[in-house]
Amino acid sequence: MPEDQHTPCENPLWPCAMTGAVACLAGFEDLAVVVHGSSGCYFYPSSLVGVPIHGTFLIESEIIFGTESRLAEVIGDLESRYSRIAVVNTCVPAIMGEDLGDLASGGRIIIVDSPGFLGDLEAGYRRALDCIAPEVDDGAAGVNIDGICRTDPFCRGNGLEARRLLNLAGAPVGTTFCLDRYDAAHRAAPFTVGTNPDLASGVGTSCGSLLGLDAVSETFERLSAEVDGVDARPVREEVAWADARITKACEKYLRRFDPPRVAIAAESAYASFAADLLDRYLGAEVACIAARNGPGGATTDFATVRRMIADAEPDLVLGSSYEQSIAPGAAFVGLTPPIRGRILLSSRALAGTEGALRLMDEVLNACASRSRSPEGGPAGLS
Question: Fewest CB within a 10 Å sphere: which of 90, 188, 238, 332?
Answer without folding.
Answer: 238
